[in-house]
Each structure stands twice: as structure tokens, then as C-alpha cells.
């Protein structure tokens, strides 16, 4: 039986960003340097496949520092941690390595600088997300106020409307954030914003590639984890850009084939914490059912690389 033709558009860039790549390397290098087990506070990145593979190598994933013994190294996830966490590790004389993405650290430094200048900070982010918790935890309680929507802006209670700054979570939707920033500027005309957009280059690039593909396709598959903010945003961006069906899948086994019945074109992208082999797996699954023609849609070239901490570059 002949397979129906399928035009497959592959987003470029997609998948791992420099911060995720660095965080995974940090765990692997720590295991080589200190041996197993190495403890990791929270998932190093939001991807079950990556976490399971590191677990097989000897990484132990825990929720809190209390779950770690004093005598084994601990790594803090790429999303960043409140200041109290490394302070607690120091007090216990633990070996610890901070795998916070440098672009998240940049937001932390920004927030501290504004605080030192006497400003209260409004953070645009998702409540409970590790990155939001980490950024808000850089400063004393009440110094960072969280808004998630345009509606929140109207309700937020500030100390002094003339002494405000805002920062954002790095993995948000560019379009959603622009609306919230506009609302903040309308309500607080003196609010100070970042010198450069807080939303990271990788999030921006992956969203732009999805927007470029959306008019060409009947459906979009986003390879990524349900707890990955940037992956979930890619699904939303695809839908808003006119894609009639967009689905988040962790693995090829999660593809809803009934929803794809009758399609002739499909787009594939991957969140910043999804490895390329999972994209390959999805493409292989499509090839079993369709006569696939692949076209890459490249909207940006990425050559960013972040160094791992010096502690891991030095011999044990």
C-alpha cells in the first residue's frame, strides 16, 4: 500500500539551547570528577528523557537541599535557586555547583541592582515555576511582586509607583509579555525595564521559527515536556499563528494519530530542553505512515556557548 505524501517542515533552530547544554555537561562532568552519586536539586532541565539518562549515570534528583547528605556534591538546576539555598549549602560545608543558566543569572543581577537603587521589582512570570521562585528568592520578601497576566497588572499593589522596575522569566511568550509590559508602562509610566529583553535568545528564536512555519502547515508537533515552560509556549505560539492543530509530545509514542488524519503538511520543533534524538524519533514514526519530504525552515543561526564553572575544569 502506498503511503500518503507528507510535507514535513523542521524548525531551525530547535531543541537544546546553550544553557541546557551547559547544565547537562555540568552533571556529567561532576559525575566524572567526584563519582556517583552526585545530587541534583530539582530536575536539571525540564525533560524526563534527559533526567532519566543522567539518573542511570548516577545522578540523584531531589526536591530540597535537606534531602542531600553533607558529604556528596550537589548541583543546582539550570532554572536558578533562591539565595537561601547556596547559603544553606555553605553553612553545611557542602561541595556545590551552580548550573543556573547565565541568562537567568543576568536577571538575578538586574533585580539586585534595582533593589540596591531603592526600587521595588515587578516580575512577569509563572507562579511556582522554579525560575520564578529562584528570581524572587534573590531579594527579601515583598521586594519582588509577581504578575502573570495583563489583568494582574491592574490589581498589583506597589509601595511607590515612582520607584519601580520590572524583570521577566526568560522562557515566556514574546507576544504575551509585550502585552503585560505595555500594561505596566501604562499604569506606571516611570517603571524601569531591562536594558535588553530578559526573554532569552533561544526562546525568541524558537518562537520565531514556529511563526514562520505556521502558515505552511496543517499541524504542529512540539517535542518537549509538559513542565517545560518554553515548550508549552511553542504550542501556544503555533495556535495563535494560525496552526489549526498543535500538540506537545514527549516521545513519538504520544502522537495522536487520529488528530493527524488527512493532513498533508506538518511542522516539527522542540523545546530548549528536548534532545535532538527525540525529534529524530518523531520523524521516524511519521515515516512509517507517510511518504515524508523534509524541508528545514531556518530563521536564525545560534552559536552561543557558555563555559562550565571553573571547579569542574580543575582536576579532583
What would you note in describing this structure?
The protein is an alpha/beta fold and 316 residues long. The protein folds into 3 domains: 5-16 and 201-298, 4-hydroxy-3-methylbut-2-enyl diphosphate reductase, catalytic domain (Cobalt-precorrin-4 Transmethylase, domain 1, 3-Layer(aba) Sandwich); 18-101, Rossmann fold (3-Layer(aba) Sandwich), CATH 3.40.50; 102-187, Cobalt-precorrin-4 Transmethylase, domain 1. Helix content is 37%, strand content 19%. It has 11 helices and 12 strands. It has helices at 18-34, 48-57, 84-91, 102-116, 130-136, 150-155, 174-187, 201-213, 229-240, 276-287, 310-313, and strands at residues 5-12, 38-41, 59-62, 74-76, 96-98, 120-124, 144-147, 164-168, 219-223, 245-249, 265-270, 291-298. The protein has a 5-stranded parallel beta sheet, with helices on both faces. Helix 4 runs parallel beside helix 5 (130-136) and helix 8 (201-213) runs parallel beside helix 9. The longest helix has 17 residues, at 18-34. The mean pLDDT is 96.
Amino acid at each position: 500500500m502506498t503511503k500518503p505524501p507528507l510535507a514535513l517542515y523542521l524548525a531551525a533552530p530547535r531543541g537544546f539551547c546553550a544553557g541546557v547544554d551547559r547544565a547537562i555537561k555540568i552533571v556529567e562532568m561532576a559525575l566524572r570528577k567526584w563519582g556517583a552519586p552526585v545530587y541534583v536539586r530539582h530536575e536539571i532541565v525540564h525533560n524526563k528523557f534527559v533526567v532519566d539518562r543522567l539518573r542511570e549515570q548516577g545522578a540523584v534528583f531531589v526536591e530540597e537541599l535537606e534531602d542531600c547528605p553533607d558529604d556528596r556534591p550537589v548541583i543546582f538546576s539550570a532554572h536558578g535557586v533562591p539565595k537561601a539555598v547556596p547559603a544553606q549549602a555553605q553553612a553545611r560545608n557542602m561541595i556545590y555547583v551552580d548550573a543556573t543558566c547565565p541568562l537567568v543569572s543576568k536577571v538575578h543581577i538586574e533585580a539586585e541592582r534595582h533593589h540596591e537603587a531603592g526600587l521595588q521589582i515587578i516580575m512577569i512570570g509563572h507562579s511556582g515555576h522554579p525560575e520564578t521562585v529562584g528570581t524572587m528568592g534573590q531579594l527579601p520578601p515583598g521586594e519582588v511582586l509577581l504578575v502573570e497576566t495583563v489583568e494582574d497588572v491592574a490589581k498589583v499593589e506597589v509601595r511607590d509607583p515612582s520607584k519601580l522596575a520590572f524583570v521577566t522569566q526568560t522562557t515566556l511568550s514574546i507576544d504575551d509579555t509585550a502585552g503585560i509590559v505595555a500594561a505596566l508602562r501604562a499604569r506606571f509610566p516611570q517603571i524601569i525595564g531591562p536594558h535588553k529583553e530578559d526573554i532569552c535568545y533561544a526562546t525568541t528564536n524558537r518562537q520565531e521559527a514556529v511563526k514562520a512555519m505556521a502558515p505552511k502547515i496543517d499541524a504542529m508537533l512540539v517535542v518537549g515536556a509538559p513542565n517545560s515552560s518554553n515548550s508549552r509556549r511553542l504550542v501556544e505560539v503555533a495556535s495563535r499563528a494560525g496552526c489549526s492543530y498543535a500538540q506537545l509530545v514527549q516521545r513519538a509514542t504520544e502522537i495522536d494519530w487520529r488528530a493527524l488524519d488527512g493532513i498533508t503538511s506538518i511542522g516539527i520543533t522542540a523545546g530548549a530542553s528536548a534532545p535532538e534524538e527525540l525529534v529524530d524519533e518523531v520523524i521516524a514514526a511519521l515515516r512509517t505512515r507517510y511518504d515524508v519530504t523534509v524541508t528545514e525552515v531556518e530563521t536564525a543561526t545560534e552559536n552561543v556557548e557558555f563555559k562550565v564553572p571553573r571547579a569542574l575544569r580543575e582536576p579532583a
